[in-house]
Amino acid sequence: MTIPLDYETLRVIWWLLLGVLLIGFALTDGFDLGSAALLPFAGRTDEERRMIINSVGATWEGNQVWFILGGGAIFAAWPFVYAVSFSGFYLAMFLVLSALILRPVGFKYRSKKPDARWRAGWDWALFVGGLVPALVFGVAVGNVLVGAPFRLDGDLRMFYEGSLLGLFTPFTLLTGLLSVAMLVLHGAGWLSLKTQGPVLQRVRLYGQGAAILSILLFAIGGLFVAWSGMGYRVDGVIDPNGPSNPHLGGAVAAAGAWLDNYAAHPWMLLAPILGFVGPVLALLGIRGQRDTLVFAGSSIANVGIISTVGLSMFPFILPSSIDPGSSLTAWNASSSHGTLFTMLICTVIFLPIVLAYTAWAYKVMFGRVTDREIRLNPDFY
Amino acid sequence: MISMAVVELSRLQFALTALYHFLFVPLTLGLSFMLVIMESVYVMTDRPIWRDITRFWGKLFGINFVLGVATGLTMEFEFGTNWAYYSHYVGDIFGAPLAIEGLMAFFLEAPFVGLMFFGWDRLSKRGHLLTTFMVALGSNLSALWILVANGWMQHPTGATFNPQTMRMEVTDFMAVIFNPVAQAKFVHTVSAGYVCASVFVLGVSAFYLLKGKHIAIAKRSFTVAAAFGLAASLSVVVLGDESGYALTENQKMKLAAIEGMWQTEPAPAGLTLFGLPSNSGRETTHEIKVPYVLGLISTRSLTGEVTGINQLVDTAKVRIAAGIIAYDAVETLKVDRNDLVAREAFERNKADLGYALLLKRFIADPRQADAATIEKAAWSTVPNVPAIFWMFRIMAGLGFAFIAFFATAFAFSSMRRFDARWFLKLALFMMPMPWIAIEVGWAVAEIGRQPWAVDGVLPTFLAASSLTVPQLWTTIIGFTLLYGILAVIEVKLMLATIAKGPERYVPWRPDSPAEPAPDFRAVPAE
């Protein structure tokens, strides 16, 4: 079979699709994580908490598939990234998985018993299931920006020389908190559309704090990236159509290199601009009690902030801090030409279908969750 | 050098998490289709009792389903976390079915499962039946794709090693998807899930009939489960995945291990009913054999030969020797990728490269191996014969027992006799059996695959991540605790829901009376 797209183009498309998946995850499951993190605070009574839980109850499961699909797609399109990141960040990944495992169970089992202690226990489980992944994902992104301590040997076996605690530095904690603020804001955006009464009032309050925090942390993070000396640059000639072997073509650490792309392609500045515009719009929405604007703002914040990270690093996906020559880039870490093309065909066929019926599922569940329905509907959690 | 402790602990963790995940999946696979059958009857007859039946089993489905989803998260990432070199080495092939599983199966199942539980009052009857069907289709498609992935580990077709990237790459994607081993495994596995759900529904119905409670619902559920279970139990045995065992050396080795057959017999070979196999003695004593049957089952012919373990080890020695040539060529190509002699040698011997990697367990550079090391490596291709021999007999014995059990159930339900107490008690006793059959079935397939992660391509001991023993103990203990707690909660909730029994459903409307029945407020049904 001759493949109608060249290897370089397919790699760029799959780099974009990697971004689409991460953003898709943040836009959909992100508000489930944020809502769960807000659960014990925005909901004080059992009925208030049930209002929050039932705002996401019917749709969160589909949203979580973005995370699972993200794992599968990275495996299929970027096997090096899948292998190096998940085994390198081993215990962090264990934390994320343990926390995420609590969510399906928490949503389903909490309402099975009226007992107050039972329900309070699951509320905190859901809180952990929302907060911990949001935090660890942010910390992981921070570590990706700094570079991870791994190297590849001649057989391309990966050795990792860091520890769980080593992942937490001031900068990565900052990115972790930014991720929490961004997703809590998005959770608040969603709950603004779905709740009412005292829950809605509190959600707006927390949303306001999260929006301001997002702006501040994104700004400080940006300054840190510009001036703390982080960044990597391709060294020598790299063939974007070459075989996927990180040992071919080199890379070096270079202070400030994460700003190179913005100098070369000023249109990319749109991403960080959206990263600031989003939270500002959300703030305006909260002030003006325009709930759709809050959700639109928090969505734009997600798109802007995540795109900023991706665009700053391109073509790097996962640089190595101890052996920059082992760094994974869009040109050396992908699947084969044929696999990328086959998977693209599958995506082009199935993703639109998925989006269509997901939209339909949201339409069926459209509207605010009311006090009455929480009390009367036997199908509600 | 590879740490065997890390490898063994990684295997232990994978086995624990996969076996635990697979406690929930089979019930999901089967119960989802039984819900479709029950709800179809409701839509066709318009009798509310069938809606109550569907909702009751749906509630049990939901309690089970969420743990399948939760533990599936671990599986999706465990190849990366614990089998990083595997992920690199075969990710080009193995990642694709996993990604397609997410796109085509999970993304079908998950949005619709929400509507299935929340949509009773928001969708039309047909609309709701459609969502239930989509959930069943999605969960069964996920079984298809994960077994395409697993089938490739058992019988790696459509791929070749690329020395430039030091990994296997796809040459024929259609061969990966239409892998005969994968197809056989898929039919066998989903049928096992249907048996599991049928035994579950039959057991719970029998419990109600014994107690004299919820009789109308129990009789109807009994009837559905008896018919569905009979078809499924026939399918799971007749379409067992033995048919794929004649395909490759390793699959042949698995078949020989199942039979405890050390020497090739003249065709058609006899089937061993009983025996005491031993890996150290390299023989099976006290055999009781049925002539001809094995040859007929496994080769589907009178002339096909079933190869013995000793002969397969001899073949392995030859392939190791050829593999060493391929390994040497790869090492040369690493330095100079235009070396034509090395490329020629590689192309001729690349199919055996994996056999040279077996030597790395004993010696750092396979090219330095002497005859004794090659002998040792060849014998390392023999899996744990007694374990496989016995587990297979437990699985197959249970398989035949299910056919007899469902044939009896079907006869009783055809005669509208639901009062045979001995059979109702037997149905309760049978409830754990499908899970035992399924878990040992998994173990036969995967222990039988050893020492390979991917048959003939990558040994398991090379596939693990470069982790440390403390890291592995942390996650093994962590997962065991978390999973253990969740298992206890799940079983308690299942039992409480069964004890409470089915409820009459009164659809909610925005104009429903302001004051609900008191128990609604206290204990929401979902």
From TrEMBL, chain A:
Primary location: membrane
Entry-linked InterPro entries: Cyt-d_oxidase_su2
Pfam (any one): Cyt_bd_oxida_II
Molecular function in Gene Ontology: electron transfer activity; metal ion binding; oxidoreductase activity, acting on diphenols and related substances as donors, oxygen as acceptor
Keyword Nucleus: no
Membrane-spanning parts: 12-42, 87-105, 126-148, 168-193, 205-227, 267-286, 293-318, 338-362
Annotated keywords: Cell membrane, Electron transport, Heme, Iron, Membrane, Metal-binding, Transmembrane, Transmembrane helix, Transport
Similarity section: Belongs to the cytochrome ubiquinol oxidase subunit 2 family.
Protein name (database record): Cytochrome d ubiquinol oxidase, subunit II
Source organism of the structure: Sphingobium yanoikuyae (Sphingomonas yanoikuyae)
